[in-house]
Amino acid sequence: MDIFGIPIQAFLGQLLLGLVNGSFYAMLSLGLAVIFGLLGIVNFAHGALYMLGAYVAFVALDKFGINYWLVLLIAPLVVGAIGVVVERTLLKHLYKIDPIYGLLLTFGLALIAEGVMRDQFGVSGQSYPVPDLLQGATNLGFMVLPNYRAWVVVASLSVCLGTWYLIERTRLGAYLRAGTENPALVQAFGINVPTMVMLTYGAGCGLAAFAGVLAAPVIQITPLMGSNLIIVVFAVVVIGGMGSILGSILTGVALGLVEGLTKVFYPEASSIVVFVIMAIVLMIRPAGLFGKEL
Length: 294
Prior knowledge:
Largest sheet: 2 strands, antiparallel
Shape: globular
Number of domains: 1
Helix content: over 70%
CATH topology: ABC transporter involved in vitamin B12 uptake, BtuC
CATH class: Mainly Alpha
Order of helices and strands: EEHHHHEEHHHHHHH
Number of strands: 4
Distance between the termini: 49 Å
Oligomer: single chain
């Protein structure tokens, strides 16, 4: 059976690949949206944090024998702790000034992280094995679905939706939003706003690391894996609306699918289709699909 002259197996395979890529886009853009929406920081180091998460997984297995399931918890905590240190020592001085300074600082931090990893591990890339529980594939009849890729989609979307619910539908999320809009008032109710902001930045960094661990068995781990992805992720955030958490999730998944389908019907445009969509959206709605107009 063909779809527009293309075998259905090839079509669904690319659709699955697009869904997997969209899950990574959603996870990374979610962390960016959380940090920008709640703190106003354009975190250009997010791709480097994603890369660090993957390297934490590699080192934990290679040097300490820590398995995949434990490192899914450890890597976000380690990278989140690095984020906390960065926020307390550097970023906290930039909240009251032009956001461009935060972008420049985090861009510099990303270059430092890439340089350190290149010096320690080289540029050839490292491989990370698929965990035993998720090896193999499931025959769906019309296609063979790799178990690990199915897990990536389920895990990514579960974390994304859980984060959205936490920020948009719980009292803690209300405190976070209020603390960024009127910190003096929230402080008057006995809530430590600087600590809350610090932990929010750390959590956003942890989300990037979680995505890095999920990506480790799928792609080669290299110092440049984050910088190769971050420009696309920023485009996803802009299309969804800067600071819109739900917009980042939905747009990330949708653009991954669009990119996958473009590889089927017009492969030459697959590397630019996201940016074409971004240009069209910005001409029609400058605040993004889910962003708030000023």
